[in-house]
EcsC family protein
Amino acid sequence: MLSKQEEELSRRLKQWIENLSEETNDLSNTYDEWVHRAFQILPEDTRSLIFRRMDQWLFSIQLTLQQVENFDHRIERIIQEAKLFNESIRQLEDLKTLSIAQLNYLADRQISAHRLYSLLQGTMASSGSTLLLSTDIPALLIINLRTVQFIAASYGYNPKNPYELMLALKVFRWATLPKRFQRAEWEELIRELDDTDQPYFYEGLEDITDEKWMNTLLLQLMKGLVIRLFQKKKHQNIPVISMAIGAGMNYRITKNVSDYAKRFYQYRWIMEKEMK
């Protein structure tokens, strides 16, 4: 049984889902066709190898993030913060007993921190250092993968669970796709949830990258070129324009990822409560 607050959130989430657009225009269609033709030039085996290696890279980053000591400290901090609402909480799964408002509070704390990290990272990467700019894409991926993992943890889903680890990657993929692809990807995510019952191992499709997701990577590469162009325009030896571009674009990406991940885990939490 949902509370009035949860029913209202459920209504707003359903309205938000309805507004996920699949509309395209001539420019986006032309761009998609250009990307498709560019990849069609490559042999099929080469294309498959590229996407497989990128999938392995993302999975390795996701797994490595969980091995660092700081990860466990952050998870423990979430649990300790949750104990302020309910002293009986002992592990992440116990967080599901909290109200949606309390869970939103925990998630918002993680979101605020990671948006700040993204802002600072974008500023540093665009400050004029070639080395820092070259690490912009890996650093941005790390920040946003961490964002999804800690939002999942804030709603009581243990990101170290093999199923949750892979699902978080799928949420990251969905959140970073161009908007015209997100409605279909959302429906695929929900189908996966409907087809599983308290899973531990992930049994769905493990593909993360493809031609659609390459739009995201290409835009980041274009951002790097623009930043390099504007780094020559300095005010008192500080590349102000390039720093503003880097900080603004990185913050926007993390804002989108955190907003989408929060909505997904809210929807999942409410869906599970409705089935009890």
About this structure: The chain has one domain: 26-275. The chain has a mean pLDDT of 88.
